[in-house]
Amino acid sequence: MASRQEPSSGAAPESAAVLAALRAGPFGLALRTAIEARGLPLERLRSRLAERGLRIAVTTLSYWQRGLRRPERPESLRVVAALEEILGLPAHSLTALLGAPRPRGGADGAADRPRPYAQLVRTPGDLRGLLADLDSPAAGKLQVVTEHATVTVGRRRELTALSSMVAVRARQDGVDRALLIYDCDEGVDEGAVEIVAGDSCRLGRVRRDPAARVVLAELLFDRSLHCSETQVFSFEVRPHSDAECCRYRAAFRFPADHYVLRVRFDPGELPVQCQWFTARDSEGPDDSSVDLTLDSHHLAHVVATALGPGVAGIRWAWT
Question: What domains lie within the chain, and their CATH numbers?
Answer without folding.
Answer: 16-98 (1.10.260), 112-317 (2.60.40)
